[in-house]
Predict the structure of Protein phosphatase methylesterase 1.
Amino acid sequence: MSDLLRNTDDGEAPQPSPRPKPNPRPVTMSSLSIVEADECSSDSSADSSASLNTIRPSSSEEVASASHWTKFFDQEFYFDVDSDTQKARYHVYFTPPTDVKKGPLFICHHGAGSCGLSFALFTRELRKRLPDAGVLSLEARNHGSIVTNPQSGEEIVDFSLATMTADAETMINMTKQELGWTQLPPTVLLGHSLGGSIVTQLAVNYALGNAIIGYCVIDFVEGYAIEALQQIASYLATRPKIFSSLDEAVQWHVRTRTIRNPESAAISVPSMLTRLPSGKYVWKTDYSATQPWWDGWFRGQSQKFLTGRGAKELILAGTDRLDKDLMIGQMQGKFQLVVVPEAGHFVQEDVPEKTAQLLVEFFGRNDRSAMVLPPKVSDLLAQGKKV
């Protein structure tokens, strides 16, 4: 249990607070074997056992609130993965692409302290523009997914980039296995902040093979992040540790311009909190506990971003965030740079329509199935045409 949750102003132990759901149907259970070791680099091994809890909304459910996850995604999956070293329950939100062979599938990873619903409005706007697209939004350990020690039951405190990247790969592979896909659809990786570091690492590792069309990183730059480490620590020390209500938490995010879009804040902020027995709320993620791994999240990321396989796009809230390596890479045409000055750090929440349009255009530019190659000279000669 995190120190933040132990040391609250009320002195109360927090209760797990699942996202409010409108009387779902009984959870369907299906047995799954763990993905092969060469397909997944997580701590789970071949002798691990895995199961899936799937929650699918039904037409007989009560009408969900406008901020409920069912307004943005078709399904949510809970993957249970047990091994000798860890007991994990991974959580993802999912909407399948219309055609698995054509895709596209956008795989999204949130930033530190955030949640999978930070891509809710982005998903809605994306599917308005690209109705055939699918979206898989992952939740990191201690952010919606839970990874514990099988003997003690305590959460495993390991937020290293390698571990969190392995978690992401496990969630992707288990989603693929649950759906019976022999291969992933054409895929675009999208990561915000820390999530950008994770999706970049997936691309560098060639973890998803040829399925990756490209990857897009939102407001994450190595040099800027390293310079801002002290500011992050100060920010965590001054932000509220407890809220009287969800509305108070939402309003704090909007008032401080942490999230500038009130609609998105109302959707994502409740998933970032845990309810106490008193009815008050504390942060689900003890962000300060991740500090030992901050340098590892950031160091070397610019070069990784430039060298990973696939097309690349960087979306920033300001040009001041670019570091030297990225400036050189951008001048050399190694990636597409887009600056969104009207947004804050949570670009995909502040301006979901613009973010969705940028990703639709990114996919359109790099969709291999849409590429039309010129005819071969031999074919033209065979047709009696002059070349």
About this structure: Confidence is low (pLDDT under 50) at residues 1-48, 57-61.
